[in-house]
Amino acid sequence: MKQFYVLRGLTWPFRYLFSLLKRKLGKLDVLRIEVFVVLGNDTHLFVKGRVVEAYKQSRPSDKQNVFHNILATLRRYAGSSVPDAKIELSLGDRKIILITDEEGIFERYHKIGNEKEKMANTVQFSLVEEEGLKAEKSFIEKSVLRFQKTFPRAIISDIDDTIIISKATNIQEKFWLSVSKNAYTRRPFPGVSGFYRLLSSNGDYPVFYVSSSDWNLFDLIKDFMNYRNIPRGPILLKDHHMSLRNIWKSGGGSHVHKVDKISFLMNFYPKLNFVLIGDSGQHDPEIYAEVIQKFPGRVEAVYIRQVGAVDESREEELNALLPANKIAWVQNSTEAIEHAKQHLGL
After folding, report:
1. For residue 238, which of 23, 36, 157, 211 sits 20 to 30 Å off, Cα-Cα?
2. Which of 8-17, 129-138, 148-157 has the highest mean pLDDT?
3. Can you tell me the mean pLDDT for 110-130?
4. Is residue 258 part of a domain?
5. Are 255 and 262 in contact (CB under 8 A)?
């Protein structure tokens, strides 16, 4: 989808100016706050979301045909993001103003200032209604995800061609799957739910998902996980902001983005050790090798689903970084489950 990302980058000035013009003329629809992530630790809170014009989207079902799914995809991507909107974040007794960027995204890495903030279990997001801006709801409340105890392990997993069949190495097939299927008709790899539930003790241990899909697919991925009984966890997707850094790292950019997201999680939760799960279709083996070197002693095991022909040089690079019984190159979930039971004491 490289062409799609470049096109978004080249057209964002026009989309940005069009949104500002609609706001000035009072033509913006009612606005929706979509909250993606709310994470907390002892010292910081991290939130991310976006503001978009509220669009009507029927709930997906396994009865919907290709035509309905294509229309739903068009609605998802046609939703207009709203730049320069103000969001009031309420944390404990503090009010914090966030401003959306040119893609309608808001993000805050906030240093916790007092005990009330540290103990807050929920946060609220409210749109600051100004001229031309009207909120769909008065506020959105979200729980803060904290991990107050130690766990035997946490999991960080890729999504495309690791959990969900995406055909990521074939642009045409991936595009058709993306537009013609929905959360209930996309297919997981057999046995994925059982494998992830085994590793996470039926969802009790922390699970994080890091993908190069964009934020427009957040609701689809979340619904897919729920429907397929895959353990819930924060979903960190890829930003497509207009900048030289983001445009020119397309293709190789997924590598940088995923290393950044995994590094953030490891730094944000320094007491957690992780199992990394991915596939060999793109850059996961190289990404995980870099992570192991960057965070020695923090990776318990790595599972890579083999896609296509075996590349011995790629395997050797990753295999050299952990004991032989901690790296598993598997063809399916059955092999992964057998390895985990034998080598992780499950």
Report:
1. 23
2. 148-157
3. 92
4. yes
5. no
277 exposure class (CB count in 10 Å sphere: 0-12, 13-18, 19+): buried
User: Rounded to an integer, what distance in angstroms lies between the CA atom of residue 170 and that of residue 225?
Assistant: 23
The residue segments making up the domain with residue 115 are 2-143
The answer to whether residues 200 and 159 touch, using CB atoms and an 8 Å cutoff, is no
> What's the one-letter identity of residue 27?
K
Half-sphere exposure of 159 (CA within 13 A, CB side): 27
Q: Show which of 96, 116, 143 is a domain's final residue.
A: 143
C-alpha Rg value of the chain to the nearest Å: 21
Angle between helices 333-343 and 192-199 (to 10 degrees): 20
Check whether 11 has a pLDDT greater than 60.
no
148 in any annotated domain = no
Query: Do 284 and 165 reside in the same domain of the chain?
Result: yes
Say which residues have a Cβ less than 8 Å from residue 145's Cβ, sequence separation at least 6: 38, 39, 40, 234
CA distances from 332 to 44, 190, 328, 338 (A): 38, 8, 11, 10
| Together in a domain, 129 and 93 | yes
| Integer Cα distance of 171 and 282 in angstroms | 13
pLDDT for position 244 = 32
Residue 114, classified by CB atoms within 10 Å of its CB into exposed (0-12), middle (13-18) or buried (19+), is: exposed
Domain count, the chain: 2
Q: Mean pLDDT, the chain, as a whole number? A: 81
Whole-angstrom CA distances from 282 to 5, 11, 69 are 17, 27, 27
CA distance 108 to 159: 25
Question: Distances in Å between the alpha carbon of 135 and those of 30, 106, 297?
Answer: 6, 16, 47
Distance of CA 189 to the CA centre of its chain: 19
149: in domain: no
CATH of the domain at 236: 3.40.50.1000
